[in-house]
Amino acid sequence: MAVAAAVGLAGMLLAVPSLQLAMKGAGSIYLLWLGWQIAGRGAPNLAGARARPSSFAAGVWMLWHNPKAWAMTTGAAASFAALADGPARLGALLGLAFGLSATLSLSLWCGVGLLFGRLLRTDRQWQALNVVLGILLALTLIPLWL
Questions:
Q1: Are residues 91 and 2 in contact, defined by beta-carbon separation less than 8 angstroms?
Q2: Residue 33 maps to a domain
Q3: Domain count for the chain
Q4: What is the spatial distance between Cα 6 and Cα 78, in angstroms, rounded to a whole number?
Q5: For residue 55, with 0-12 CB atoms within 10 Å meaning exposed, 13-18 middle and 19 or more buried, which class applies?
Q6: Residue 104 belongs to what H/E stretch?
Q7: Domain assignment present for 53
Q8: How confident is the model at residue 51 (pLDDT cuts 50, 70, 90)?
Q9: What is the DSSP letter of 50?
Q10: Is residue 49 part of a domain?
Q11: What's the distance, CA 96 to chain centroid?
């Protein structure tokens, strides 16, 4: 995804500023909707916890259809294009940066999720946490528009 963004999508977004604004607007609307969905949730449904996990291929397929990932990757490619002397190098740089960031953030996310799973007992506690997480997601849009 980083290579695809570095090869052409970032250049296209830089060349057509209205497309970048439209993508930013659509991504913002999606993130606000997602924050609203998160804020309205209660305790996690653990009945499906023993369900069979998705395959690796299904995970890769889902990644390519994730609008948040495309918005982040193309935005990063457009923003950091000057750091590399070509699309392949930019793609490798972004892939390394995203890979390290994902490893660290997912490890933290899983650890905190386990902690919350052990600490939060009532539906009301889960609802409060989800409202806070939904608001935090919405607040991530502020730097995007400043």
A1: yes
A2: yes
A3: 1
A4: 8
A5: exposed
A6: helix 87-119
A7: no
A8: low
A9: G
A10: no
A11: 16
CA atoms within 13 A on the CB side of 97: 15
Domain containing 140 equals: 2-41+60-77+85-145
Give the containing element (helix H, strand E) for 76: helix 67-80
Q: Is residue 67 part of a domain?
A: yes
pTM tops 0.85, yes or no: no
Counting DSSP H helices and E strands in the chain, the numbers are: 8, 0
Give per-residue pLDDT as tens, 3-42: 677 677 666 766 777 877 887 788 889 889 999 999 999 8
Nearest to 31 by CA among 128, 105, 139, 146: 139
Whole-angstrom distance, CA of residue 14 vs CA of residue 12: 5
d(CA 141, CA 15): 23
State the Cα–Cα distance between residues 69 and 130, nearest whole angstrom: 22
Residue 113 to residues 47, 72, 117, 130: CA-CA distances in angstroms? 17, 23, 6, 12
